[in-house]
Write a structure and sequence with these properties.
Order of helices and strands: EHEHHEHEHEHHEHEHHHHHEEHHHHEH
Strand order of the largest sheet: 4-5-6-3-7
Structural class: alpha/beta
Distance between the termini: 99 Å
Shape: globular
Oligomer: single chain
Largest sheet: 5 strands, parallel
Radius of gyration: 33 Å
Length: 530
Amino acid sequence: MKFVYQKFVYFFLVLESNAFMPKFRINKRNVLKSYTDYYLENFNKTASSTFNINFNQDDDEFIIGFKNDIVRKAKLHRKKSQNFEVFNYDDLSFEDVGGYEEIKKELLQCSDLLTDFKKYDKYSVRVPKGLLLEGPPGNGKTLIAKCFSGEINSSFIPVSSSQFQEKYVGVGAQRIRELFELANDNVPCIIFLDEVDAIGRKRGGGEDSANAERDNTLNELLVKLDGFKTSDGVFVMCATNRADLLDSALLRPGRIDKKIYIPNPDNKAREKIIKIHLKGKPYEKKIEFNNLVEMTNGLSGAEIENLLNEAMLNAIRDNRQIMMMTDLEYILSKIIAGYQTNENLFSTKMIKQISVHELGHAMCGMLLPEHTRLSRINLNLWSPKTPGYTIFETNEIDANIFTKEKLFSHLVVLLGGRIAEQIFYGESVTTGASKDFQEAYKLAEQMIVNYGMGTNNIYPYNSDKSKEIIDFEISDLIKKALVKGKHIIEESKSLIDEMSNKLVEDKVLKRETIEMVISQKYPWLFEIKF
């Protein structure tokens, strides 16, 4: 007969005793107290499973079978090992991720393979083993992995790859085995390896013991992903900012089958991210989503969340219950230019010169048709290193390929600040253009050497003569940019003088304000010829 009982399994303490009597007959009345909690507790499982007991066996066989049944069923559903723990994110879904719709579709293709992997056995197809999420920090790689787990209702084991690095030999490989054993006990399961470059870095030929230990850990991971044994129902998701550092054996198909790049959010993604993080934050009706989307251009998802959070905290510090646009602009200025507790002490003349410098950048950008649109100019005297800065919009069209005209216009904009200082103040220029010069020279060198935008397409490095030609080409390109920038600043000198006073007074000058003044007083500037 079989006797099934639930909630608590009782067994004699005498199981662990040498005084056990083999002839003792077990029946319903004999099942009194238990010490089997010991086994269940060791696997982090309460004694609440259902066990089938066959009383037709011999006593010795029954005892061994019953004990093994307890261990097997407890181990099958254990939620924690010595170093890792299984989580369930049932409260998360892709609704909690703003934007990135194409990435969501790509991930959902893997969901059926993970949750119903047995139905694919008869088709002789290989179930994907892993996926790599790559991209700049702060764009939700970890959040996407969690929400993917919640979307398909699977177990989730988050792991920092640095957990496998120890001073003791063999610890990393042992923890890899422990990780996959726990995952196999909780299928379907997602293993998330954050910052995977900590263990997946390219293997070297050095004799350093630390490198040898990391290589052993990586070797064990490679075997688990595609070795002698299969791990059906276990899916490995990796995240990194530096995919170029990873070993090619880890990235090959059969181990990491998909590679997904997660960039900074575009307009649609930023709009959805802003809506998610504005929930519960009261804000004035003047704040429009379009303005926020434009303001956060170029920011990561984490930076957008931080912007809205800090803006709300700033409103609360001022004893206001509503977040205003001024809060957002103030916090964004701190994010871009930095912040210090004491305001920098500048003379009135110096503040005026800073504003002229920034307007030199702005006017070159506005009047050159190839350059991206001006957003605004800011004076931030609380910044430790950048008291003034000019922001241009990021163009999402043709964002990765640039024409020679577009790069040259950016070179002119970089030099526009110093040109404006020279035209307004002669030889009394400031050190504020030092970073502009560094960026300008770097861009000009790339245009000549890397992009072939000089007189010749390719310049060899093997002779002093070719190096001399490269230096001449770079110098000539910078001179042309200076000539064009000087022409723009001289034509708009009156406008710069007028707008600099307004910038000193308001500390912020937007594109719309400058365009309105040009259309009213200086309309010929829009028709300037170069």
